[in-house]
Amino acid sequence: MKPATSFESMDDFLSLPRLTGLVLSPDGSRLVAPVQTLSPDRKRRISALWEIDPAGGPARQLTRFAPVETAPAFMPNGDLLFVSKRADPGAEHSEKSDADDSGLWSLPMRGGEAELVLSRPGGIGLALVAQDTGTLVVICPNLTGPADGDSQRRTARRDAGVSAILHETLPVRHWDHDLGPGKARLFAVEQVGDATGWQLRDLTPDAGGALEDAEAVISANGATVFAAWHVSHPGGRESSRVVAIEVGSGNRVVVAAGDERAEDQHDFTSPAVAPDGRWAALIDSRAESRSQAPAVTLALVELASGERRDLLPGFPLWPMSPVAAPDSSAVYFVADEAGHCPAWRVEVATGKVTRLTRSGAYSHLCPSPDGRYIYALRDHIDSPPRPVRIEAAGTDQDPVTLEAPGVVGPLPGRIEEVEARAADGARIRGWLALPADTAPAPLLLWVHGGPLMSWNSWSWRWNPWLMVVRGWAVLLPDPGLSRGYGEEFMQRAWGQWGPVPFGDLMAITDAAEQRDDIDATRTAAMGGSYGGYMANWIAGHTDRFKAIVSHASLWTLDRFVAATDHPGSWAMEWGHPDDNPERYELNSPHLHAAAIHTPMLVIHGDKDYRVPIGEGLALWYDLVRHQVDAKLLYFPDEGHWVLTPGNQKIWYETVNAFLDHHVRGSDWKRPDLL
Known about the structure:
Elements: H1 10-15, E1 18-19, E2 23-24, E3 31-38, E4 45-52, E5 60-61, E6 69-74, E7 80-84, E8 103-107, E9 115-118, E10 126-129, E11 136-142, H2 150-160, E12 173-174, E13 177-178, E14 183-191, E15 198-202, E16 216-218, E17 224-232, E18 238-246, E19 252-256, E20 266-273, E21 279-286, E22 295-302, E23 308-310, E24 319-324, E25 330-335, E26 343-347, E27 353-355, E28 361-367, E29 373-380, E30 383-391, E31 400-401, E32 413-421, E33 427-435, E34 441-447, H3 465-468, E35 473-478, H4 487-491, H5 499-513, E36 518-528, H6 530-539, E37 548-551, H7 557-563, H8 567-574, H9 581-587, E38 600-605, H10 613-625, E39 630-635, H11 645-663
Parallel strand pairs: 34-35, 34-36, 36-37, 37-38, 38-39
Antiparallel strand pairs: 1-3, 2-3, 3-4, 4-5, 6-7, 7-8, 8-9, 10-11, 11-14, 12-13, 14-15, 16-17, 17-18, 18-19, 20-21, 21-22, 22-23, 24-25, 25-26, 26-27, 28-29, 29-30, 30-31, 32-33, 33-35
């Protein structure tokens, strides 16, 4: 009898705990991770903080589960700050729920109950703690106007029944939420006298939407906050620079910014500051243009002189999430590489680059204060995030896994690497997840989103093992535009979203179908976001698949560009359709609607602001108009991703029923709750 897995039942899968972050205490003795699980009524996700032993001992739960229990940060004395939507037990009852807004809580190192440190109308978004001094800065949303009148303005809006938002620049929405009326600001937190009360001092009264992504760090001495500062430009273009803000005075200077007059424009984000205060490492992204794909490197700025240099000249991959070494001698980062996302180290003095890990995808790097280890979360296609310990001086190592909640148990199959050659000779590689059964399996081609992404990490949302357990072989390829293969690989498909990746996908599908363990007569294709766009393109260019699922997909590109949440970024690559129609005509799937004969399942959420619902509705109408055998699964209250547990279950039930009917010949069975 084969062992039971967590994938045979969607209820079991949805119940699995999920690690979403990792922080290390200043003395290196404690790791803390937020862990999500289902609420008792199974309708939403709630979270709690868990302590993980860096030495590998048992993990223990620190806080009770609440709607939000996240963003942990240690004070120098070991007290743990965190953001939570738990109700304050000492607060008087009001008409508005105590837990509507998130507050900042503190869990004493000595033990005991967590105490509310700071609350504010609109909530607390994030707390920055200076490693040496304990200086505290928080990020909070604030309505237009002085910070000390924010509460009164919120009350006045609520009492008047006003929900309107006045915008003067782009963007107005982001992924699945409206921007405003509150905009993020940085506040210094100062104690009032000897009492336990605290007051906030506004450091960025003119921020507007500049701090929307809350990418900020505070120096070890607490004197300066370094933040990504977003700028809106005429015509809808957006850019990002890094600024330094003095905590004492609020004075702000630019650390790094691109030259807006130059054709080769750059954005700077993700600051990491040396503990000794000498330098800051920044992600330096060359903005895309109509002719050139973006390129990413790591810039190092000497803070005393302002001198900036490329820390990774000639490095072919995209660095992400930089973190300073405790002795300020190096920068740790992660970068996608050929189906993995290893952890790396670059020496500040010499530029020497070392790959620390061999396989897997890493995030939340936490260097230990003694310089010996790096703690991180590791995941991969075949493993959800797990806390691990890495030797800081090692090379291509397999890390030590630490004990934590969220073990999934045995997989229902195995993972193999596959590759093929594209028409231009480029190597196309991907993962093939295979069921345990040795019989030839039907093949599901699953195209990733992005498109500047890679199949290299675990996904709770797009999980191939939920299909493998049902007997599918799932092909997870990285076609042109994917990250982790160098700039040339991306450039070959730049401006050709449809034609070049389509050829790559068909080449690697051909290679998979030639295997003895694949049934080439039973195939399907699926994708979400850019993967959904590609599913639509595939539908209009081949009849080789028996069914296609298209989630949150782009369909009519010239209409999409003005409705998406960040139209300026799109226009940098594509131009405006009035001025540059040829690229839209080359790549828009809707122009091939009449060629679609394959049965299609269209899925879209009404709160999707990245790919607005109009794209899904236009696709659905064209399929109906051309009498294609098609269905529309519509989620009125979901965004780009389907995140509510009940809706996730329905998503998979509908996809499985549709694919089983058209590929495996089963009778169509409408899900019971639809």
